[in-house]
Amino acid sequence: MRPEGKVPSRAGPPPPAGAGAGAMSGREAERGGALCLGLLLHVLLGCGSAQQPGGCPAGCECSEAAKTVKCVNGNLTEVPPDLPPYVRNLFITGNPLRRLPAGAFAAQRLAELGALNLSGNHLRVVEAGALSALPALRQLDLSGNPLASLSPQAFGEGGSPLEELALRGALRDQGALLGLAALLQAGALRNLSRLELADNGLLLLPAGMFGALPALRHLDLSNNSLVGLRNVSFQGLGQLQSLNLSDNSLGVLRNGTLAQWRGLPALRRIGFGRNAWVCDCAIEDLVAWLKESDQVEGKEALTCAHPEKMQGKALLKINASDLNCSVPVDLPSQLQTSYVFLGIVLALIGAIFLLVLYLNRKGIKKWMHNIRDACRDHMEGYHYRYEINADPRLTNLSSNSDV
């Protein structure tokens, strides 16, 4: 029998006071922390969704803090219809986007969109009104698109506040070039300050293409195939500061073009590098201008490409004795002058002839009357003989009279 009042020793020592309650409160704390963390995440996500009305389009990356949306290589065939209204910088590049229809951005009310990059897509057509619903647009990049049609009304009837336009490698089709020329000449981009037309293989530019760009400061025509600037007018470009004509096929520049550049007060940088200069008599004006002008960058490195005996010779070191000027330089203009002189001489001879006729008008009139009377007498003799030969009686009478 066990003694009364004794507790079995194998039950172990009793747990300290409050130990069970502490374990329970720890588990409850963990559950409460998890619940609070979940609520916090829910609140943050809710706030995030509230800060981005409309969300972010599929295939795009959006940053409200940077006011930027990037839709790069997203296989888009049209402008996303659900762009967030806060966007200021929009990149839609590397997509099979072939057409920019009228009102492409009209339904989205992108009042703050200032920079639009549509380069590297497959754009062929930009229709009238395609960019008319962007009142804050300042920069537009259409480079690397095989444009075939660029509507002169792409920015609508009222024009655009656009300041920078990049069309590198986008104007290889003549239709797109003519469309751009019509767009510029219409005055739709009078605020344009930078125009990039490099890498387009251009041979000649449409006449008067830059006539309605009074705010233009930077013009890039590099890496084309321009052979001359005879039909290009730079008048009215009073704000032009830099002109890049490097990597073209220019052989000579006429005095008319050089005179226009002399009249542009803000023009300080002209790039001529890597052109095929022809060093004959026609280059004298260019050489003289280079020696007196400080507008050309790196003019010391400009060298002759033709003829063979002048290859590699620096343009600044050319003298009149180095050029063979025995053949007239501008034969068409000389022929035109000769034709004008010939016309003047013929007109003078004609005037003298008419004056002589006028002074001798009485004698000429008398002479003409004498000739008329002589011709009349002669014709009457022929008529009389004809009547005699036609009447047999008169013929016999004539015969008897002769006998």
TrEMBL record:
Protein name: Trophoblast glycoprotein
Domain LRRCT: 275-326
Top-rank taxon, per record: Eukaryota
Gene3D superfamilies: Ribonuclease Inhibitor (3.80.10.10)
Pfam families: LRR_8, LRRCT, LRRNT
Keyword annotations: Leucine-rich repeat, Membrane, Repeat, Signal, Transmembrane, Transmembrane helix
PROSITE patterns: LRR
Leader peptide range in chain numbering: 1-50
Renumbered residue ranges of the record's region Disordered: 1-25
